[in-house]
Amino acid sequence: MKPAHHGGVEFGGTKTICAVGDDTGVILDTVTIPTTTVPETLNRIQEFFGHYPSLTTLGVGSFGPVEINPTSSLYGHILNAPKPGWANTDLKGELESRLQLPIALDTDVNCAALGEQQFGVAKAAQHFVYITIGTGIGGGVMQGGRIQHGASHLELGHMPIPHEPFTGEFRGVCPFHGDCLEGIASGPAMEKRWGKSSRHITDPAAWKTEAEYLATAVYTLSLTLAPELIVLGGGVMNQPGLIEQVRAGVEHQNRAYVSLPPLNTYVVRSTNTLNGVQGALLLR
Ligand code: ZN
Fold first, then answer.
1. What is the 74 CA–ligand 1 centroid distance (Å)?
2. What pLDDT is attached to residue 195?
């Protein structure tokens, strides 16, 4: 019997990663394309998977908000995403008609959580949280080894975060909430506030502030979900020393109330940039 091959796509705000893998999610081929217009991006995805007639399924992880509830008439549609031209796109329907494959869909961050569980730092963890801090902030929760879904997907990036009173012009960058977590702690939020890309920010005060926001989010998730592990990924987490500052912030906020595991094994960093597409490969 010929081995089954599966396809995976991770739609991100700036780039889209496609992969072909085997039954266990091991990647055999991958390509990264810029996320431009809907037709152009879908054309390039179709071109890549056209080389693999042996595909039996396609798993898709998408930036949100996206309708992942199969009972909804909008199942598979991107909803009011701020990315120009992508709101209301029937992503699932478009891909199904182009590729003639059964498609399973979830959010990019839920897929990343799945990828971390299968191949990454959350291997063997049953209850954990994955958060990415980059162009946006999003998160997925695993409970009992499965992605947690409610009426829709979680929106951890938009949780309100207590913060110091802002004195300058900065009020947060979220177009919906202003100063939610994503609005004050994402890469674009840092850039707006400190006047340069987070990659070039060296001011210790900026990183102290960033670490406080992230520690507040992590501690809130720790209290509300009691996970075994919290995994932080995304480009902003590449800043040297940030993960240690976040751990210190969590410890400080906890005030020895909850008996947390050692922080260096409880709040960990993911550096796997393919976790999203790896998780998408595993969706059935
Ligand atoms: Zn928001």
1. 22
2. 97
